[in-house]
Write a structure and sequence with these properties.
Order of helices and strands: EHEEHEHEEHHEHEHHHHHEHEEHEHHEE
CATH superfamily of one domain: DNA polymerase, Y-family, little finger domain
Protein name: Putative UV-damage repair protein UvrX
Shape: globular
GO cellular component, one term: cytosol
Distance between the termini: 49 Å
Organism: Alkalibacillus haloalkaliphilus
CATH topology of one domain: Dna Ligase, domain 1
Strand order of the largest sheet: 5-6-1-7-8
Family: Belongs to the DNA polymerase type-Y family.
Oligomer: single chain
Helix content: 25-40%
Largest sheet: 5 strands, mixed
CATH class of one domain: Alpha Beta
GO molecular function: damaged DNA binding; DNA-directed DNA polymerase activity
Length: 418
């Protein structure tokens, strides 16, 4: 591959190691590298997921971020911490602010609460080599927050991310570099499922084609991959050669909203009689977000997941004549779908609703719709109260029943308690 036509940048991909656990350790005055600490979503549930484990806990007991609460060892030194998403978001914001000491905000691309990219083009005269810049970034995060980080360096965001995932986490200093010329040696021997952007389903399809490693993918025909997987197949081919043309600086614009959805995994089995209140709360949140963006939708989707002993559940949608962002209208359609496809006697463990086929919201002037217009004004008034005083400032009576979820979810950030 001749890499001459392709852009070269100095891109860092930075990952905060055991971020949630490190924050909890620092709050307690503990060394994240020595303390045995696990962050658990809900310690009152034995099956709750371990959201983060300190490096020492991972090393000593093999605990990972997919372990369950009941799998934690009986160790007298083990500390169980509730998840505090508000704290993690605040620290993440402070780390992002810290990065502006090195680069302008246009050169920072946030990937998640504990991971981001920096484009450090033009900083060599100030700070030295790219690896020295990475060391400075590491040291600044450690000194200000007590959190260790690992950093991948590459010509583009893909290379920086993949070398960080694959090699930097194992490197003694937590830094690894991969340029175009290093791809065949550093990345091609890697199994495809370990590469960023390739999930279990894609791995299955690739393995059936005889593609096991990233090198196998690189040697596959681009035309064949595109025919099999469409645009994704072509992207896979270029990524296998380390090529990524996504922008590394500038204002990363938000993609156009395709729909407004809200879903929940319930903490217990719900009966048919209880699910109505849950669906109403879900429709309320989906429509609130649509109203915020002045959008309406004509297609309403309902997905219900049963408890394991009752099968998988169902996922159905229907379209209506007039676009809406009215909670009650969406709820009534969801009830119709539920009554039509629900398997009698089944217990429910998951539910989600989505409003799609979007159009811009337009005011209704005809007197025929005067009642609907009054309802819309009421919805917007309630939205404003919630925006100012919190999502639980005004609730429907159904939210206070056993099936309601709004009160509990109002106490959480990202599905976990603040």
């Amino acid at each position: 591959m001749d890499y001459t036509p392709y852009p070269r940048h100095d891109v860092l991909c930075i990952d905060m190691r055991s971020f949630y656990a490190s924050v909890e350790c620092m709050k307690r005055g503990l060394d994240p590298q020595k303390a045995l600490l696990a962050v658990v979503g809900d310690p009152n549930r034995s099956g709750s997921i371990v959201l983060a484990a300190s490096p020492a806990l991972k090393k000593k007991h093999g605990i990972s971020n997919v372990s369950r609460y009941f799998e934690l060892p009986q160790d007298s030194n083990l500390i169980i911490a509730n998840a505090h998403m508000g704290d993690y978001l605040n620290i993440s914001l402070e780390i992002t602010k810290l990065m502006t000491r090195f680069v302008p905000k246009e050169a920072i691309h946030i990937y998640s609460v504990d991971e981001l990219w920096l484009t450090v083009d033009g900083l060599r005269r100030l700070y030295g080599s790219v690896e020295e810049i990475a060391q400075r970034v590491q040291a600044s995060i450690r000194e200000q927050f007590g959190i260790e980080s690992v950093i991948g360096i590459g010509d583009n965001k893909f290379l920086a991310k993949v070398v960080m995932d694959i090699h930097a986490k194992k490197a003694p200093n937590g830094i690894s570099e991969c340029r175009y010329e290093h791809v065949s040696d550093s990345l091609w021997p890697i199994s495809v499922e370990k590469v960023w952007g390739i999930g279990s389903r894609m791995k299955h399809h690739l393995n059936r084609m005889g593609i096991v490693t990233l090198g196998d993918l690189a040697q596959c025909s681009k035309a064949h991959l595109k025919k099999r997987f469409g645009v994704i197949g072509e992207q896979l081919y270029w990524h296998a050669w380390g090529i990524d043309l996504s922008p590394v600086t500038g204002n990363f614009t938000k993609t156009e909203q395709k729909g407004y959805g809200h879903g929940v995994t319930l903490l217990r089995d719900y009966t048919k009689d209880e699910i109505n209140a849950c669906l109403l709360d879900l429709c309320e949140e989906a429509c609130r977000r649509a109203r915020r963006d002045e959008k309406e939708g004509r297609t309403i989707h309902l997905a219900i997941g049963y408890s394991s002993e009752h099968g998988k559940g169902f996922s159905r949608s229907t379209s209506i004549d007039t676009a809406t962002n009215d909670t009650w209208e969406m709820y009534q359609v969801c009830l119709q779908l539920f009554e039509q496809f629900y398997k009698e006697g089944s217990h429910i463990r998951k539910a989600s609703v989505t409003l799609t086929n979007l159009t811009d919201e337009v005011g209704t002037q005809l007197s025929l719709f005067e009642q609907r217009d009054r309802q819309k004004q009421l919805d917007y008034a309630v939205d404003q109260v919630r925006e100012r005083f919190g999502s639980t400032a005004i609730l429907r009576a159904s939210s206070y029943t056993s099936g309601g979820i709004a009160i509990d979810r109002g106490k959480k950030i990202g599905g976990h308690y603040e």
